[in-house]
């Protein structure tokens, strides 16, 4: 494992503690830490959902065969492309049920109001005629009974509306969680490729002024091969934290996948976006990486970046592809380089 002693961010420390727990589980089971496996174990460790934790615990405590495959199946069910749709379908069903129940109570309340009005009109007509004391007593009892029924109906309606309000609040929370889960990379805590695609589409649709940068770690495969995936994951997390530290306001740092990251920089000129990427590259280059497991010096690591600005003719795909081409131009020109265009 690798760590940078300069880190003092409480949130980062909590994320690191959880990640170290995940890595220890994988080490104990001699389990390769692929992104799906990490995401499942990370959410199990942080207690995201009781059902998920029960599934994962069952796999981890079961026969030590095909654990990675089983965890990948869990990933598909809970975090794969179908998971969001299933969650939305579940919420839609709950919402349909709530609407149906409220409709029934509203109909009952309307009928109660109509009945009360009818009873009151009948009582008024009776009072307009010559009535005896017994007739008056009977009319009063009828009005009181009607009011009692109406009050019960109103109270039932009020309780149902309070329950519905609670259910809608819970569904809203569930939607927020689903949205966040489907748009977050749990290794780094940054928004993921899904979120990046949505943000690029939004900015292009508004014809907003922005720059987009793609950042890629140099020779990252050799790091994983030499020092192991746990070290590689810690390097990715540290780069994610570095990007987060250097983006402010409306700027967005994302993890695209693997060792590729993206920066969306609204209201930023190309020269400013390039300077920011060069600053990040310099700070990353200055980190002295140490293997925590062996105390060996890993040494200096570098990154490359391609930076471009939105053009009025751009689509999300075209600006993404242009940044990608600039990134690989930087790679082909020797790496540890930022190229803009």
TrEMBL record:
A Pfam cross-reference name: GGDEF
Give residue ranges for domain GGDEF: 208-341
| GO molecular function term, any single one | diguanylate cyclase activity
Please, which domain of life does this record's source organism belong to?
Answer: Bacteria
The UniProt entry, under InterPro entries, shows: Diguanylate_Cyclase (IPR050469), GGDEF_dom (IPR000160), Nucleotide_cyclase (IPR029787), Rev_trsase/Diguanyl_cyclase (IPR043128)
- Enzyme's top EC category: transferase
**Which keywords does UniProt give here?**
Coiled coil
Matching entries from CDD domains are given as: GGDEF
Name the record gives this protein: diguanylate cyclase
| Species assigned in the record | Algicella marina
